[in-house]
Amino acid sequence: MAQPQSLEPVVIEPVVNREKLRELLALETEYPTLDFKSCYDLTEKHDQVDLAKHVGAMSVRGGFLVIGVDGQGKPTGNVTVEQAKLFDEARLRPKLLKWLPDTLEIYSQAHDVDGHHVVLVHVAPNPAGCAFFRADGQYDQPGRASKVVFREGEVFHRDGTQSVRLNHQGLEQVIRQRVERERERWQAEHAESYRRLADELRAGATGQHVAQGPSVEFNLALEPDVLVEAAIELLRANDDIPFRRMLSRAVPELRDLFRSGDEEGANGRLDRLTCLAATFLELVRHEWFEQVVDTLMSIYGIGFENEAPIVNAPPRRSAVLWLAIIERVLALGSLAVRRNDWQAVRALVARRHPDMNEMYTTWLRHAMTMASRAELLTTRDGSREVLDSLLSRARNVARRIEWLRPDAGPEDEKILTGLTQFDFLAGLVTMANSDNKSGIVPNFARFDTERTRPAAQRLLREPDMRQIIYPGDDQFFADALHTIDRDAQRAGFLYDGWEGYTRDVNIFISEQGVGTEQQ
Description:
The chain is of the alpha+beta class and 519 residues long.
């Protein structure tokens, strides 16, 4: 599969809340998609023009500007209350439109960080691939000629951590962005046709044609709408033969795409399998759901084929495949949590390919570790490793695939809350299935504590849920809770994230004699 264009740990998403700000500040360095600024006073023409330059440059790939911090992401205290108010979206956008095109899409929010005002601005990729300045950006200099920062018709892009005029490297980047936007536009234009066909399927005619026709007609080349509705017709007819045949063909199809390096084709097939799994989860058809998950596990195994035993140094293309699968598994996990389907949660977590090294008890931990070692989730900043947000990547999958959110819009916060709770529960399932009680990687820890706490409380109050997630006795369960809390508080410190359980959970842990002697 093709290598990703960027190994930056910045997950670009239209989110400017406190959690996202803390995530970005914890990176402690700038990237092409992340710029730290000490201060901007938008009453000053100089600062307006300079901000427009950086926003224009960010419009190629998208990214974030953080105002009110130094080069390491530490608050400077230089932004006043009045200056922060000028970054309100309703006031900021008109200022920038003096120089930037009407297609500009930005989001902004001011936050208090350690007693200082810090503003987070998200710049979306421009649909044209870049932003052409619509007027000269210049300002007066006392006693000197006016300073011209950019000219009408010019394009800026991010070259490393600098915003510069378009060069050859930037042009290549713009072309890639424009091609991607054109592909998305084509898909959007054809979406109405797909919806009309889906309406026919829901009426039964075309769905019955696919379901009752030769089984080869039910395949992963179908558009997602058609595929899902045809699958529903098969469910209604209780005919799983075309479905089984499709799954049996999925693995060799993915193998061919993997070996040819066709990442886009492989991701398309994984998306369709994810749509099917989400549909079966929504319709409470566990047998069909688990068959799709089993198929994803078989596809996971493709990354081990024709390779020596993999322990610490995975082939990059294998790690790319594993990460792509696990991002979708996490997004499915969020849906399972939101549906209170604890059996599905366990089914998604408790998978282990036989070719994985024996130290890994679940594919979630294996994929995350392998992706980090292939530098798909980690970036080196000197001697320091910066870890990407796996849950934010999974949230982007849910934004893109509507079948993963039948109960929510693309920006609904309960999708992320479902992700953090799934990650927490996955840690418990992993520890329940393993002799290794040393802990897990708490991805949920970087997000607000209140997202995840209810999952721990429900485990105490709902015996059926507890029996599925962690069937061990109370002392082992308390020990697992304590270990996860310990690891999460360490991991969440930089992000102002996880702060610990509620009082009732802590009392339960204490009553089992766990924690006090280990602190």
